């Protein structure tokens, strides 16, 4: 198997790390490699804040409600960033259009593509990672702690470190559930989701830790039917991302 594809299929979220540090040269190698990600019109509308300070990591763990943030070697905060583009505009007597749904989407997508490359590069080096959406739980506190300016907002974080152990890979949806040929076909979902529920129920009941009797559709019905982080709309507006 192609080693890149093999690495991609081995991805797991890691939440327990050793106390081994990541050399700065290795972290920079990972980030430089990740900059090869695609970017809409090459605007590169993202930044990343690297945090290794113990006290800051503990605060970030508290703000995101993710205790393992405090124990990772490096915590990365990925930001959608229009501030650097605005600096470029000011050099030519223009200003960035931050009141734009398109620019909100583009900067968020740019940050996400970059972050996924970071994850793959880090895992190829033998490190474990975990994306932390909880960074959006208390974004104003995150901004204050990390001195994040207007025209920038934290999209998510990522823990990186040497794993204490390797967990099992979670079975993904069958390809037929996400692949639609020629046109979108929602009629196939009932059968495919029933099949996937059986797969996930077996996984949850037999995995090495945190065994439970549950399936995917039940989990998702409980999760996605609840309104999450309604404060983000006002927070984005304060950061000059008004998405009109």
From TrEMBL:
Keywords: Flavoprotein, FMN, NADP, Oxidoreductase. The keyword 4Fe-4S does not apply. Residues 12-161 form the Nitroreductase domain. It holds the Pfam family Nitroreductase. SUPFAM superfamilies: FMN-dependent nitroreductase-like. The keyword Membrane does not apply. Gene3D superfamilies: NADH Oxidase. GO terms for molecular function: oxidoreductase activity. Belongs to the flavin oxidoreductase frp family. This is Oxygen-insensitive NADPH nitroreductase. The lineage of its organism: Bacteria, Pseudomonadati, Pseudomonadota, Gammaproteobacteria, Pseudomonadales.
């Amino acid at each position: 198997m192609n080693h890149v594809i093999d690495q991609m299929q081995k991805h797991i979220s890691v939440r327990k790390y050793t106390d081994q540090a990541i050399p700065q040269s290795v972290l920079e190698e990972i980030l430089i490699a990740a900059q090869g990600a695609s970017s809409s019109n090459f605007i590169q509308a993202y930044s990343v804040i690297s945090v290794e300070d113990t006290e800051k990591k503990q605060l970030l763990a508290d703000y995101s409600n993710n205790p393992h943030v405090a124990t990772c070697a490096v915590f990365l905060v990925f930001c959608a960033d229009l501030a650097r583009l605005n600096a470029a505009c000011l050099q030519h007597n223009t200003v960035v259009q931050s009141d734009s749904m398109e620019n909100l989407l583009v900067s968020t997508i740019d940050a996400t593509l970059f972050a996924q490359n970071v994850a793959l590069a880090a895992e190829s080096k033998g490190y474990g990672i975990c994306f932390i959406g909880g960074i959006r739980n208390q974004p104003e506190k995150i901004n204050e702690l990390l001195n994040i300016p207007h025209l920038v907002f934290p999209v998510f974080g990522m823990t990186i470190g040497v794993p204490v152990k390797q967990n099992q890979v979670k079975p993904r949806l069958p390809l037929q559930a996400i692949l639609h040929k020629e046109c979108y076909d929602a009629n196939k979902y009932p059968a495919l989701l029933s099949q996937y529920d059986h797969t996930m129920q077996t996984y949850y009941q037999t995995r090495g830790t945190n065994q439970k009797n549950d399936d995917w559709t039940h989990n998702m019905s409980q999760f996605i039917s609840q309104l999450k982080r309604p404060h983000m709309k006002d927070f984005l507006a304060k950061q000059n991302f008004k998405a009109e």
